[in-house]
Amino acid sequence: MTLAVREATREDIPSLCALENECFSLPWSEESFGEFFDNDCSRVLVAEADGRICGYVGMYLILGEGEITNLAVSGEYRRCGVATALLDRLASLDGVERLLLDVRVSNTAARALYEKCGFKVDGLRRGFYSKPREDGLLMSREIEK
Question: Is the pTM of this model over 0.90?
Answer without folding.
Answer: yes
